Amino acid sequence: MKLLTHNMLTSHVKGVTKGYPLIIKATEVKVNELEFNAQFVSRMIPKLEWSALIQAAEWLGQSQDLPSALIPDYENDEEFLRKVHRILLEVEVIEGCLQCPESGREFPISKGVPNMLLNEGE
Amino acid sequence: MQELDQTVTIGATVPTGFEHTAAEEVLEKLEATARVSKNRGRIYFDITTDKLLKVHQLKSLDNLFVVEEMQIDWQELANKLPWTNALEVWKLNNSIKKKKGRRKRTNPTKSDQCGNVDAKSTDTVPSDPEELCEDLEALEVKGNQRDVSSQPENYSETEKHSEIQDQESGVTPLKFRVTCNRAGDKHCFASNDAARDFGGAVQEFFQWKADMTKFDVEVLLNIHNNEVVVGIALTVESLHRRNITHFGPTTLRSTLAYGMLRLCKPQVSDVIVDPMCGTGAIPLEGVMEWQNSFFLAGDNNGTAVSRSRSNIKHILKRTHGGSFSGLPLDIVQWDLCNLPMRSSSVDIIITDMPFGKRMGSKKKNWELYPLCLREMARVCKPGTGKAVLLTQDKKCFLKALSQMEGLWWKLHTVWVNVGGLHAGVFVLKRTAVVFGTTPEDVMEPHTATGSQKESMKDGSL
User: Which residues lie within the region annotated Disordered (chain B) (predicted)?
Assistant: First the structure.
């Protein structure tokens, strides 16, 4: 699971209103190389919940001096964009789980795939 | 082998309904204008032979053939046709195929129901593609006049130029067969007759030997009313199974998946979700061609998820040669009717919805489709979001869609033939209306299904 995906996932346990962002508890993390595209990253940034991304990076120990708030004119800062590229697409959680911040319900991640299925009645 | 720079007409079969998207791809990548033929499911275009390799790399095309001529009086065809050019192209193509064939053999496909596009009568039943490849290699050995003990396992990786040279020296006659597709009301012959008679003429003209299973040259005879197209096949195995090695019960053809993806025109940084991905045919095709978008594939079924994962691993091994070890794609196991995603986070939703035949049931669709459409509307960006949805259960889909006019509007529909079933690809645009404010989704879900159950009683299902 990449952090870009994590940025869009939320808990949908019944009755939960503050299910975002899901807490990441990782037991195995991998870094894969992906081709860098500056335009992709700079266009993706406005679509993200930036604070959730920083939070996720911290949980994985991958903060790498990413700012907690976006700097103006980030589109032209290639070094910054490369850092964001790495954290969005190259860092992957292979094993672990995602935890709903409100209910505590845990969703396992296995072989890079989170299982978000709920049981009957949840 | 001499480089021929002649112009040749290539014909290609494409998923019926996607002739125009295929023509777009041809124009974009080969700079050739394609003609969409009256035979639905076929396009024709002219290229110079140096572009032949690129033709094989196109993603909308199922099968390729080189066209010789389009004539009306088919009886005298064999003698009049300019075979030389076409055969030169066929030889050139063979050297391209040999290189591809080697790679494909190390990844045997679990040969499944290889669905053919047209339901027209074909004269011969294509044998298993894997077997054909092996037979071609066995024939090659024969051409060298050595003792044939067909041992495909011992096939080596070395380049083989010998096949072409041996045939040019005229040692062994080529083997061929004729495959005939016929459509039209006024013919007094069946495709069998046409194939046989034409085959006889070809045999006499060339002194080739006819062989149904172990052939070098496949001559294609396409007759549509009073128009005849003769071609020589360039593909042994349809190009459409390219990405999938792990099939599921309803795996979508890659060419069809590609056609659907072209319809949504993915842009840089678009988030594209397939919430019922099955074995991942659509997201995989997407990530190969549109590397600047992000694909999210989801399914509720654990087996489907693990098959998708295997298919991705296979793609990674095959492409990039190890320089990049990741793809802009993720898989999640989830329930489509209750997506664990933030609202308005998705740019494009693209999926192959259960038809209710091999997967699911028509009855289930009546409940599933409205829930799907609502949840998709929630996660899709208002105003800019799009959905491209394939389904055979058109009645149910359209009914479900009409119940949420506030959220989606229909842009257009492409009618396609999927494994003999008449299906529709519906292209929808998400309206600017924010989810949770229209009367449709304020309405209780069970009231909606209640009224549907009543209309079910008339037995139309």
Answer: 98-129, 143-168
Q: Residues A23, A60: contact at Cβ < 8 Å?
A: no
Chain centroid to CA B52: how far? 19
Return the DSSP state at B34.
P
CA-based nearest distance A73→chain B, Å: 18
B323 touches chain A (CB under 8 A): yes
Phi, psi of B231 (to 5 degrees): -140, 165
* ipTM score: 0.96
For residue A27, pLDDT over 90 is answered with yes
Task: Cis check for the bond before A101: say yes or no (omega within 30 of 0).
Answer: no
Given B300, B323, B340, which is nearest A9 (Cβ)? Answer: B340
CB of B325 within 8 Å of a chain A CB? The answer is yes
Q: Is B108 an 8 Å CB contact of chain A? A: no
**Option in A9, A37, A43 nearest B341 (CB):** A9
Could you write out the DSSP letters of every residue in B246-311? S--TTPPPHHHHHHHHHHH---TT-EEEETT-TTTHHHHHHHHH-TTSEEEEEES-HHHHHHHHHH
Question: By the CB < 8 Å criterion, does A43 face chain B?
Answer: yes
Low-confidence ranges of chain B (pLDDT < 70): 1-5, 38-39, 69-81, 98-171, 182-190, 224-228, 236-251, 319-324, 355-362, 405, 437-461
Indicate the pTM of the whole model: 0.69
